[in-house]
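Obj.: predict assembly geometry.
Materials: sequence records (below).
Method: joint structure prediction, all chains together.
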Amino acid sequence: MANTTETQPPHQVVIIGGGFGGLYAAKSLNNANVNITLIDRRNFHLFQPLLYQVATGAISPADISSPLRSVLSKSKNTKVLLGEVNDIDPQAQKVLMGDEAIPYDTLIVATGAKHSYFGKDEWESFAPGLKTVEDAIGMRHRIFMGFEAAEKETDPQLRRAWLTFVIVGGGPTGVELAGAIAELAYHTMKEDFRNIDTTEAQVILLEGLDRILPPFAPELSAQAETSLQKLGVTVQTKTLVTNIENDFVTIKQGEKISQIAAKTVLWAAGVKASPLGQALAQRTGIECDRAGRVIVEPDLSIKGYPNIFVIGDLAHFAHQNGKPLPGVAPVAMQQGEYVASLIKQKLQGQTSLPRFYYVDRGSLAVIGQNSAVVDLGFIKFTGFVAWLFWLLVHIYFLIEFDNKLIVMIQWGWNYFTRNRRARLITGKEPLGNYTSEKTREMVNV
Amino acid sequence: MANTTETQPPHQVVIIGGGFGGLYAAKSLNNANVNITLIDRRNFHLFQPLLYQVATGAISPADISSPLRSVLSKSKNTKVLLGEVNDIDPQAQKVLMGDEAIPYDTLIVATGAKHSYFGKDEWESFAPGLKTVEDAIGMRHRIFMGFEAAEKETDPQLRRAWLTFVIVGGGPTGVELAGAIAELAYHTMKEDFRNIDTTEAQVILLEGLDRILPPFAPELSAQAETSLQKLGVTVQTKTLVTNIENDFVTIKQGEKISQIAAKTVLWAAGVKASPLGQALAQRTGIECDRAGRVIVEPDLSIKGYPNIFVIGDLAHFAHQNGKPLPGVAPVAMQQGEYVASLIKQKLQGQTSLPRFYYVDRGSLAVIGQNSAVVDLGFIKFTGFVAWLFWLLVHIYFLIEFDNKLIVMIQWGWNYFTRNRRARLITGKEPLGNYTSEKTREMVNV
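Observations (raw C-alpha cells):
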C-alpha cells in the first residue's frame, strides 16, 4: 500500500515563536503529514492583550499563560523546544540555536516585537514597557510601591510625585493601564492607607497625536477620552515627550515645554520588531522597515525564499491597502492559519494558491470596569455593552486554549467586589526611579 | 463627659511581622482602644502552608496571598508600614527601621523563621528551601527546567540526573513536594514531551529519622509512606545527607555512604528563627534556643519585659509539656489571639491573667490528589476522606481573610482535569545546579 510520498521523510516545519502567530500555525498543522518543531524562549504562550491586568494587580501571570507543551500535547506531530534562536541559515535551511542547528523544509518566523524608545534607550530604566511577564511583575512592583512610598513620605512635594503616574502613549495599552491605575487609586485602595488619600493621586495619559486610540474612529476616541476623564485620568493629547529623567517627564505641547514631577512613568508608546528579522534580512538580502519589520510578499513568504514565512508583529504586510497591517493578535492568528493552510495545499501539489487577506473584524479597547470602545466597522459602540463585548471576546480566545473558565469567574468576582487581589510587590526590581535612600532600602527588603 | 483615660494618648501597639501570629493579633485588636502599627517587609500576608502548590505549578502566588492593607482596611486603628526592622531598643521602647524609630507601649514580635542548612549554608545554592514567594517561583523554575533540560539532553546518564528529584526532609513540606512532583511526572505531564518519558523520572524523599512525618502517630507515617510509594515516590528513611554538590547528593545509611546523581535537590529539612530574635536577646539578656528561637514566659512575654511578646515560629514556648510547641500556623494564630486578649485585659486593669495554653486540634499533611493523613488525636484517618478534610480546613482559613472562593474553584478544576496550569518558568534563576554550557544558555533566555 505504501507509495513513494509515504516513504519519504516527512516535511519538516520549524516555527520560531509561540505567540499568537506561531501557535495558531502549529495548531492548524496538527493534522497535516508534517513534522513540526516549535521553538520558543519561554515554556508558555502568553495572552499579551491582558498583560496590563497583571501589571495592575487584577490577575496572576498564570491566568493568562498556557504551557506550550500542554496546549500542543495532543499534536503528536509537534515537538516543543525551549531555547533562543540566534540566527537562520537560509542556504543550508537550518535554524541556529547556540551550537545546535535544526534543519527545516519550511520555516515560519514569528518572534514578534518588543517595546522601543525611538532611540532613547536610556529612558527604559525610568519608564518600563510591557511585553513580558517579568515586565508586568516589575510594573506592578512600581505602581504599588509608588503608593507605599507616598504613605511613608513626609515631604508634600515628594509625596505628590510618588502619587503621580504618567503613562506615555495613548494606544490601547496606555488607555487600559491609565484606566486600571485610576480605578486602583480612586476605588480599590481608597480605604487602605492612613497617611495618604489615594484619591489625590494623579493619573496622566500622554499622547503625541491629536486623539487617543488613533486606530479607532474619531468619535470613539472622543468617547474614550470622556470615559477616562470620568474615571479621573488627565488626558493630554498633542503632547510629545522630549525627555524622561529620574523624577521628571519633560513634555512639549506646541511650543510650550514643561515638566511633570512623577516617580512612576510607564511606557506604552512604541514597539520595534525582534532582532531576528534583521538577521534574516542580512542573510537573504530582503528589506526591513524602520521598525525592523520584515517586508513580506503577498503570501507572507520573503522574496526569493518561498519556504520562509514571516508572520505576526515581525511582518510588514502592505498588500492590502498600502499601509502595513497593525501588530495585533487577530492579524497574527489569521496569518498563522493562512500559512498553515498554504503549506498543506503545497504538499498536496496545488499550485494556484491564494494570497493572504486580512479580515478585520474590528478593534476594541477597555477603559475601566464598565467601559470600553468597540469598533466593528459596520457598528461602533461604547460603555457597558462594549465592556461586556470586550470581556466575552477575550474569554472566548482565552478558553480556546486552556479552558480558562477560572479567569472568567475571577473577573466576575473582581467586578462585583471591585477587588484586585493580585497586588503583590515581589521580586527585586532594578531601582531606576527610586531615588531616596529610604526608598531604596524599602525596595531592597 | 471626658475622663482622664480618654484624654491620654491611646496605647501604642507595634506588631512586627504580618504572618499568622502578627495578623491574628492585629485583627483581634481591631475593636480595642489602641493604636496599632503592623510592620512587614512585604505588602501581603502569605498563606505559607500552600506554598508548595506554587512551587509545583498548581496555583499562583496571588492565590495564597492577601494584601495586608486590604485585610486590615476596616481596622481603622491599624496602620500598615512596609519596611524592615533591624533592631529593637527595649529601654527607649522603640523599634528601629533604618533611621526611623517607632515608639511602642506594647511590642509583639512575630518575624517567624526561615530555612536553615544546619551550618552548611553552601548547600543553599544547590538545594533551595521554601519560605517566600520568590523561593516558590525559583523552585518552580528548577522543577520544570529539569524536565526541559532532560528533553534536550542526549547523554543518557545526564538525562537520568535531570529526571531525578531529591527532596531532603520528610516533614509535611517534604511529603507534599514529593507527592506533587510525582503527580506532575506520572500524570500531568506524561503526554507533553517527545524525547523523554516523564514517567521514568525518579522522585526520592530522604528523611533522617526512622519514619516520615515524625509529628504524626507511627501508623499514619506508615500509611503516608505507602501512599507516596503508590504515587511513585522512593522513600528513604534513616538516611542522613552528608553533602550536597552540583550534581550529587551524598547520603549515609547506617555505615553505608553512597551518592545519588540528581540535578534537582529541594530542601525541606530545617528552619532557624529570624535574626531579630538574637538582636532582642542581646538587648534584653534573655535566652534563645539552638534554633535561634526566643524563650518566652508562660504569657508569651520575655523575662523582665512584660510589654514585649514573642509569638509564632520565633517563640520557644515549653511550658505545656516540656518540649517547645511546633512552628505551625495554628500555634501562631492562637498565640496572636491570646496576646491581643491579654493586652485588652491589661488595659481594662485586670491583674489576674491566664497563661497561654495551646489547644492542639490536630495535624494534617497532604500526599497527593486523593490522599492525605489527618491526626486529630481522638481520631486518625487517611486517604480520600482525609484529603477532603485537608482541603476544607485550608479553604476555611484561606477564605477567612479574603473570600478566596476562587482558589476552591481552581482546585476543583485542577482536581477534575489533573491539570497544573501555573507551570511557568519565569525570572532569572541563580544558576547553582545548572552546569552544562548548553543548559546555562537555556536558563538565561
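Conclusions so far: Residues 133-152 of chain A form the longest helix (20 residues).
To do: check interface contacts against the pulldown list.
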